[in-house]
Amino acid sequence: MDFRKSELDTVVPTRIIGPIKINYDNSTELIYIPLATFETPIWSSVKRGALVSQKTAGINIEVIDDLMTRSIVVEAPDLKKAIENKKKIEKNKESLAKEIEKTSRFLKFRNLSIENVGKLLYVRLEFSTENASGHNMVTKAADSAIDWIISNCEGIRDLSVSANYCVDKKVSAINGILGRGKRVSAEIIVPKLICKQILRASPTKIIDLNVKKNFIGSILSGGIRTANAHYANVVLAAYIATGQDPANVVETSQGVTFADFSGEDLYFSVSIPNVIVGTVGNGKKLPFALKNLEEMKCYPNDSSSSKRLAAVIAAGVLCSELSLLSALTNRGELMSSHLKLERTEI
Prior knowledge:
Blueprint: E1 14-24, E2 27-36, H1 41-54, E3 59-75, H2 79-91, H3 93-100, E4 108-117, E5 120-128, H4 135-152, E6 157-160, H5 173-178, E7 181-190, H6 192-199, H7 203-221, H8 231-241, H9 249-252, E8 256-262, E9 265-275, H10 287-295, H11 305-328, H12 333-341
Parallel strand pairs: 1-3
Antiparallel strand pairs: 1-2, 3-5, 3-6, 3-7, 4-5, 7-9, 8-9
Helix pairs in contact: 1-6, 1-11, 3-4, 7-11, 8-11
């Protein structure tokens, strides 16, 4: 049976939250973030964090890296040939890059890494894809890479254009280490008085809980390069609101929340190695997505708009992470707020 169009399009409740005070790209500004979610308490959580940002010097944000990956797997006749071809690919990667870059005027080859498993070669390719998230762009490039490898390496057989070494839409150590998408960090210093007045928590309690919940709890659970309370909630809401592929929340939920003292005040940061977003491509021209991107001043014709989008999402994540950890220092606050807000906010 073929698929058919639903009688009704799915509608997700959306609110514009803010303003969040951010320091990004050498300027300070107040910015709003659209969030589409059925987990409606997230709106109030981000709103409280946004209020904290307004009462401080703001949230400092850096987009540290920007890349998209695709991995391929090919097979040699035996281990010896696999290692010979691995060395040949590495030696001639500039020639491979020239061939790959013919597939798109927006794509730039960055690097490759190769892992062998017996006679199998797993080739992880890294690219810059400008304002596109780049999934289709890098798959097309990976197809071209396979053609080049088969033509230039002896006895190589193609197995797959996607080899789970990218890693696409799965939690992995390699993405946490090498990154996939935008690697973003955001930080804020919250005065002790503001912690007490707005967050109803002391810096000491927030720092202590971050260690015992996010770090020790994540170690006990076997979390992979991750120590945070709930990045996924804000990331997913922002992804849906701006026409992103929501399945990428699997990767973007990785990250580390860090809390420390700054004198008597609170130092608080989030670091996310895999913010996978674009401002052009499939889904971004839908009216709601375009309007929400414009709300964040992430204009498709701006060459750095996808990085800006990642920065704003990181700010939203920080706001909500700070608010949730503060709530958890007060027994009963999380449950009471959910009971109240989930009955009134839609």
